[in-house]
Each structure stands twice: as C-alpha cells, then as structure tokens.
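Blackboard transcription, Thursday session:
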Amino acid sequence: MKTYTANITVTLRRAILDVQGKAVEHALHSLHMPSLGNVRIGKHIELTVTAVDHDSASAAVREACDKLLTNPVMEDYQFTLHELAAVGAE
Amino acid sequence: MKTYTANITVTLRRAILDVQGKAVEHALHSLHMPSLGNVRIGKHIELTVTAVDHDSASAAVREACDKLLTNPVMEDYQFTLHELAAVGAE
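(Written on the board underneath:)
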C-alpha cells in the first residue's frame, strides 16, 4: 500500500454569484487596493489516501468529492495527487 | 498595464487543530472511506490584479493577504500569478 497526498480545490461555478467574494472585493477596495478584483472564494482540502496505486487513490478522492466534499450542483473541483515517500509502518 | 490572475491557497498552520478537517474525516469514515485521513481544510481565493509588471502584481497580492485575506497568527498562504492575455481596454 502506498500513501498519497491529495490537494483538492473546490470552486463555485462561474454562473453562480459569489457573495463572499463580492464582500471581500468591497473590503479590498475600502482598504485602497482598487487594482484587485473578480474575487472568488473556494475551499482547499488536503488529505492523505492509502491505496494500492495512483488510479485507485484517484478514484477514492473522486468518490469523496462526489459524496461529501463538494456540492455537484454549485461547485466544481480539481485535485492533484502526490505519492509520499514510502511509509511502511502506516 | 497588465492583468494577472492570482490563485491563493490559505492553510491553517500545522500546529493548529483543524476542527473542520476532523469533522470531515469522521464523516468520510462513517461513509465507509477509511483510506482517507489527515484532512485539513483551507481557503482558495482567486482574483485578478491589474499592475505594471509581475513584481508589483505579486506585491499587491501579498499586501492583500497580509492585510485582509489571511490571519497571520494562524494561517499560512502561498499563491501563483498568471498573466492573462492582453486586455488593453481594462
């Protein structure tokens, strides 16, 4: 078994108004940073996966995203998987 | 002036207990996904920056992170900057 680290980025779909992002944008402008705009706020999830290979680790992460971590109606996700150095004891 | 897109990832420092991550981890295990663990939840912020060059865009993002987007006591951040195709009208 190998251990992988997954970095998942969950973002609100483009078509959906990002209220939190708008609030942050207004705050940035109030703080005299008018050069920043189009703020969109999402989630970043980091987790470890124990699996026999990269493909099954990827399938496990996708299942977790579909079942729990994201709202498929409003959000999109993408992730990267990196194998951790051998951790035989885990 | 050029326009850049910044992708900022804000994570809770390692030393700080991630209660939300723990809750998600328990939920994953309840959903019969025991191979996933060490869940840590952070924020992903996407925004556009208008600046003369890469360096000043980077400085603007760093200022926004330090002043508003992150809590320097509890959180770390990292970001990437990509130049958007020329948008002379902006």
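Lecturer's comment: Residues 2-16+44-83 of chain B form a domain with the Mth169; Chain: A , fold (CATH 3.30.1280.10).
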